[in-house]
Amino acid sequence: xxxxxxxxxxxxxxxxxxxxxxxxxxxxxxxxxxxDLDGDIDMDVEGDRAAVSIISDSTSRDLQKLVGRxxxxxxxxxxxxxxxxxRETGDRSRLMLDIAGFRARKREELADLGARAAEEAKGSGExxxxxxxxxxxxKVVHDAVAAAGLRSESEGEEPERCVVVLPV
Length: 168
Fold this sequence. Notes:
This protein is of the alpha+beta class and 168 residues long. The chain is built from five helices and six strands, in the order αββααβαβαββ. The model is unreliable at 1-5 (pLDDT under 50).
């Protein structure tokens, strides 16, 4: 534990994140009912944020409507869900929403991209600039680059902000 934190602080944080997950699940269940879509809500706490997933047993592509092209609808629903949590708790939420495994698959692809860019930067000795990404995407790439032993930084302004992988 860090200086100034106690086991109680950790338990309080966990309880707060679980509460965020419960509020988000209620909000999303209402949304699924309104949209007449089938899906189950799965809640978890990953690190320092609540993680909520909408999953479906059916083979239908109904939930893809909630993902949208390149996750655009998913991003919007995540923001709406965060606002619903904020309205109930009064605290800003960093909740992460995944629908039909889209974000989990995207995380794997981005981690691979970050590792490949790190290898390229190591091999060439030159910085490697990647295409513009969302904050979520950049975070995953930064983590993969750090795991490969290199440093990266974000540059540019939204929506053109991108990751640059720096050689040793």
